[in-house]
Task: inverse folding
């Protein structure tokens, strides 16, 4: 009898845990109907917003900051690798996923939920990435979602397994897709400065931060001037992970541990529903999925994220 009692408690506890994250959308009346997320791969906070001179992110610091929100305590609190970080953004779940592109996310993403809910064609949602391996984000291991509601993709040289491409190619492709398709939901990945960091090219690493700052700024201006996106778009810029602090393992050339250099990352947010200020409350990557779901009125039962309410103008 005692064994059955504890078994029942265990089952109820598991059911409760699985249900408590099935959060319905809030009642906040968003003006935004479209979402664009840009992931700048792998800079340390110390070379971006943590550097008070902001010398490597002049456009974001001088042109964009005053019109959006800057988060000073934003983190990857899961696995500090590329595919894990991106999976946290799109599914709201910290998954220890294979980093080579040989494993799909365990749970469906906001791409899947949005395409199902909206009933729109694939080109309403786009995944545009310099790293080919990130095409995994268009899929999931969940058998209920296999080969269903897959977003349009343009990843690497020619899809999964084809190799990385230059960020300028990704930028030009993103501009083309945004202008031609005007998708509702987009994630864009730039491989720099991560790629230069891994080959121990410090100057290339810094140039990668500067180049992506320019690409981000140009995309931000496109959104602000385009008649379909203007005043209707939630625009985010973040990172999938940082890099080791100086003195930790190999320093800036790698990442993957729990040091503050790997965990402390950036979040910039711009949109008609967002405050224009520095936000010091602590949030994490998976919270982006919760906010995106809230904006698009989706239910993502597996997301462990929380809506970033400190950002919202109420």
Result:
């Amino acid at each position: 009898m005692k064994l059955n009692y504890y078994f029942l408690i265990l089952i109820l506890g598991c059911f409760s845990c699985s249900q408590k994250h099935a959060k319905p959308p809030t009642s906040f009346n968003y003006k935004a109907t479209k979402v664009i997320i840009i992931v700048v791969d792998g800079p340390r906070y110390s070379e971006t917003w943590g550097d008070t001179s902001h010398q490597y992110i002049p456009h974001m610091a001088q042109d964009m900051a005053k019109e959006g929100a800057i988060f000073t305590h934003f983190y990857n609190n899961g696995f500090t690798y590329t595919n894990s970080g991106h999976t946290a953004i799109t599914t709201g779940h910290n998954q220890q996923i294979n980093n080579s592109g040989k494993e799909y996310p365990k749970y469906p993403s906001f791409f899947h939920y949005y395409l199902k809910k909206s009933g729109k064609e694939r080109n309403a949602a786009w995944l545009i990435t310099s790293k080919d391996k990130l095409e995994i984000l268009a899929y999931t291991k969940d058998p209920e979602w296999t080969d269903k509601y897959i977003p349009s993709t343009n990843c690497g040289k020619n899809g999964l397994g084809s190799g990385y491409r230059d960020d300028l190619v990704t930028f030009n492709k993103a501009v083309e897709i945004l202008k031609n398709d005007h998708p509702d939901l987009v994630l864009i990945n730039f491989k720099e400065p991560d790629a230069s960091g891994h080959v121990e090219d410090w100057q290339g690493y810094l140039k990668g931060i500067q180049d992506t700052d320019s690409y981000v700024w140009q995309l931000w201006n496109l959104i602000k001037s385009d008649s379909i996106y203007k005043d209707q778009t939630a625009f985010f810029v973040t990172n999938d992970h940082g890099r080791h602090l100086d003195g930790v393992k190999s320093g800036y050339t790698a990442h993957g541990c729990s040091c503050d250099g790997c965990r402390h990352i950036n979040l910039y947010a711009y949109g008609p529903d967002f405050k224009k200020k520095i936000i010091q409350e602590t949030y994490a990557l998976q919270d982006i999925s919760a906010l995106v779901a809230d904006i698009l009125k989706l239910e993502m039962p597996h997301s462990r994220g929380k809506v970033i309410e400190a950002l919202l103008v109420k």
Summary: The longest helix spans residues 202-225. DSSP finds nine helices and eleven strands in the chain. The two ends are 53 Å apart (CA to CA). Residues 2-311 form a domain with the Alkaline Phosphatase, subunit A fold (CATH 3.40.720.10).
